[in-house]
Design goal:
The chain is rod-shaped, with a radius of gyration of 59 Å. β24 and β25 (507-513) form a beta hairpin. 40% of the residues lie in helices and 31% in strands. The protein has helices at residues 2-23, 27-67, 71-225, and strands at 252-257, 263-268, 274-279, 284-290, 293-300, 307-312, 318-323, 327-332, 337-343, 349-356, 359-364, 368-373, 378-384, 389-395, 399-404, 408-413, 423-426, 431-436, 442-447, 451-456, 461-466, 480-482, 488-492, 497-502, 507-513, 519-524, 530-535, 539-544.
Length: 546
């Protein structure tokens, strides 16, 4: 009952408030209109009375004139005329006031209509505002609900973050313990590897000693038999092959897939009996050519990245491979075992060569050249070259010539303590490879400006430049080589062709076409009869006419 009476009172109050709001602005207008209407009504009444009086006076005047009252009638007529005139003036004034009142009524009516229109417009605005207010209230409720959900989600995320933070702390502790265990295991593994290396070195020393003894016995027997030695033949004493005159092959004798990925390096041994290849599959493979095919005689493993450079020792007993894992490694060829791992560079090792039987020199992308002593298994000299070393060659067991990214060739004496080079030669393009002639008098340089430069080391200057139409150096470690008799130079091109120049004529002798990808490296057999080349694909091609 209380609720029923309340809503009725509220409705009544709202109706009264609306009535007051709608009538209050027009109260004065309504009162003025009523007052003017009353005045107009009274004036009309007076006007009617005056009309009646005028009619009466006219009748009286007519009657008196008919009776002939004489002078008195004239006087009364004059008075009546004056009175009629006054009444007419009053009537005129009343008509004038009536017109003014009518105009005021018209003006007030127009103002009233304007106010009514304004009131209707405001009513529509109030309705729109009420609807907008209802919509805003609904949106407010929706936003409040969304905010409540977001607060709950945020709290859940905070709880999850806290749990993850605790899990991360636990994992970090486990990781630290695992690192400590790993360091301990690495230390123990290194100690074990050192013991194994010492044992392998002892075995290798015994093997080499026995081989040298057998070699001495064979030499003694050969000396007793007085058998003439064919300069082109090889035997177990590792005599290097002798080349009287090199020949340029004209056909691909054998094409085969040497590795599982790109083949970066190829190198013949000094005897010319086999060649080694290194590739992106982290392996070095030894190949021998028999009966028209190349057969794999061994695979050297242990590298953690692609092989970028290969070099045999003078006795062909060891091979060194430079790798992209910042290290160089040395294997023994006979038993195919990893003997030394030379670590210390902070960038890719792009070239590694034997300086002597017990020393190796390596050049790296970290702009340093390091000399390694295999007897002490450590770096004995670090040379800061100032630019990335892409290739190097060695002379006389003490000198190193390096080619760099800054287009300079630098000469180093490893016996001195200073890091400064003894000489520099600036070329037009950055160096990709160096190759030393067998007589140590000429240096073949391959540069990224698509040409080969031959430097006369006696004159310390460029003696000739070899170029060819279509020849493009394919990469920053593209290798070019001299023929064993220094009559020719060979280099691979980015178009998949192998170019061979006649040095004396200064022009291309032959263009060998068999590869389907850019040729990265080539190596001329020390006997001068064949060339091995490798490409950016998987293939190696042996070029020979024999």
């Amino acid at each position: 009952m209380a609720a029923g009476s309340n809503w009725k009172a509220v409705i009544l109050s709202q109706i009264q408030h609306r009535n007051h709001k709608q009538t209050h602005p027009f109260t004065s207008l309504i009162q003025t209109n009523s007052r003017l209407f009353e005045i107009a009504t009274s004036l009309q009444t007076k006007n009617v009375h005056l009309q009646v009086e005028i009619e009466k006076l006219k009748e009286e005047t007519l009657n008196s004139h008919v009776r002939g009252d004489g002078i008195n009638s004239n006087v009364s007529t004059h008075l009546l005329e004056q009175k009629v005139f006054k009444l007419q003036e009053e009537l005129t004034e009343l008509h004038k006031k009536r017109g003014e009142n009518a105009q005021q009524i018209i003006d007030l009516t127009a103002l009233l209509q304007e106010k009514e229109k304004e009131m209707q417009h405001k009513d529509s605005m109030i309705s729109d505002m009420r609807e907008n207010n209802i919509a805003l209230k609904q949106a407010k409720k929706t936003l409040e609900m969304a905010m409540t959900e977001l607060e709950a989600t945020n709290q859940m995320l905070k709880d999850e973050h806290q749990a993850l933070q605790m899990a991360f702390t636990a994992l970090e502790e486990r990781y630290r313990k695992a690192q400590e265990d790993n360091s301990d295991l690495i230390q123990r593994w290194m100690e074990q590897k050192a013991k194994d290396a010492d044992r392998m070195n002892a075995e290798n020393a015994d093997f080499i000693k026995a081989r040298q003894q057998r070699l001495a016995q064979d030499l003694e027997e050969a000396a007793k038999e007085q058998v003439p030695i064919d300069p082109g033949s090889t035997f177990d004493g590792f005599l290097p092959a002798v080349c009287v005159a090199a020949s340029v092959p004209s056909r691909a004798q054998h094409t085969f897939d040497a590795h599982e990925g790109e083949v970066y390096a190829v190198q013949w041994n000094y005897m010319g009996s086999s060649f080694a290849t290194g590739g992106a599959d982290r392996k070095i493979k030894i190949w021998e050519y028999h009966n028209g095919i190349c057969e794999c005689r061994g695979t050297l493993v242990g590298s953690n990245a692609g092989i970028t450079s290969l070099d045999y020792s003078q006795d062909d007993l060891m091979i060194v491979g430079a790798s992209n894992d910042f290290a160089s490694r040395i294997w023994t060829v006979m038993d195919q075992r990893l003997r030394h791992t030379l670590t210390g560079h902070s960038g890719k090792v792009l070239s590694a060569k034997f300086l002597s039987d017990c020393k190796v020199v390596s050049g790296s992308h970290d702009r340093t050249i390091k000399v390694w002593d295999l007897n002490v298994k450590s770096c004995i000299k670090t040379i800061f070259a100032g630019s990335s070393c892409n290739d190097l060659v060695t002379m006389y067991g003490t000198s190193v010539i390096s080619g760099h990214f800054d287009k300079r060739i630098r000469f180093w004496d490893t016996r001195g303590q200073a890091d400064s080079s003894t000489n520099e030669i600036l070329l037009q393009g950055r160096l990709t490879s160096l190759n030393l002639s067998p007589d140590k008098n000429q240096l073949l340089c391959c540069t990224r400006d698509d040409c080969l430069k031959i430097i006369d080391l006696r004159m310390n200057q460029v003696s000739s430049t070899l170029t060819a139409e279509g020849f493009k150096v394919g990469c920053d470690w593209s290798r070019a080589v001299f023929s064993p008799d220094v009559e020719y130079a060979a280099a691979g091109s980015g178009d998949g062709n192998l170019y061979v120049w006649n040095i004396n004529k200064g022009k291309v002798e032959k263009v060998l076409k068999e590869h389907s990808h850019a040729v990265l490296a080539c190596s001329w057999n020390p006997t001068g009869t064949s060339i091995a080349s490798c490409e950016k694909g998987k293939k190696v091609v042996l070029w020979s006419d024999y």
